[in-house]
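Worked example 3. Consider a protein that binds magnesium ion.
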Amino acid sequence: MTHISTDISDITILCGVDKDCNPESVGEIQIKAGEIVGIVGPTGSGKSTLISDIEQLACGDTPSRRKILINCEEPDQILRRDPKKKRIAQLSQNMRFLADMTVLDFLRMHAKSRGKNSDTPQQTIRTANTLTGEPISEDSQLTILSGGQSRALMVADIAIISDSPVVLIDEIENAGIRKREALRLLSGRGKIVLVVTHDPVLALMTERRIVMKNGGITGIIETAETEREVCAHLSELDEYMMELRDAIRCGRSVEGSYLDAFRSAGSL
Ligand SMILES: Nc1ncnc2c1ncn2[C@@H]1O[C@H](COP(=O)(O)OP(=O)(O)OP(=O)(O)O)[C@@H](O)[C@H]1O
Ligand SMILES: [Mg+2]
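Given these inputs, the predicted complex is written out as structure tokens:
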């Protein structure tokens, strides 16, 4: 049974300034344990920067001048310096493994440092393989994994081994992995989840979304009931796209049955 961390019950973003040093329109945002919050905005609007402010536990010392509180208090300096104590997991936008070791050795090392059971590394690989088309084998070198495989492995590692109460996700949709399953795996169990996304399905899966422009937060939108319905329809269309993508990836032709499926997905 995985240990559920309850030591971070909320985080608060005390807003700062945008790229032109104008104050952000929202004073503060509090996110409670168990919440999934989206971050949306055009390219270059400051989404990754906001995630990085949270990851660094900014205290007015970054260009945005934001401050991050944990449990309504300014975090101790030790928390900022010691990644083990910080307990914030980040899935960054562009990542590649640099360590020269096998997948299994890496997971064993991580599981041991987190005091996890010895069967956790294999469980992590099995979980990663539910997210990616081309399976990861335990004796592969980390450096030869593809972008999608690396992402899938990190998602499973964060979900199963890291067990951090705060999870920051930067654009999971571009990695070619099963994004909705990945978000479900990473969220829940009382975690605080922030997910940067350009994807409407993921954005509408969240409870509310922070809107960014020109480096600043310009608003927060609660996901409305109609948006949840739109999300359900979009998920079906998305499922269709996944099947089509898989068929094309596996070298199959797109036959009549796909057209029928498209018509029924389109007429939802
Ligand atoms: N509040 C801010 N003050 C000053 N500079 C900022 C601020 N917010 C973002 N920037 C700068 O703007 C640039 C773009 O920001 P960022 O990479 O966070 O955008 P993004 O929304 O993640 O874009 P993409 O969708 O392309 O990933 C970066 O160089 C960043 O340092
Ligand atoms: Mg970004």
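Take a moment to read the result before moving on. The pocket of adenosine-5'-triphosphate (ligand 1) is lined by residues 17-19, 41, 43-49, 63-64, 93, 215-216 (CB under 6 Å). The chain has two domains: 10-223, 225-268.
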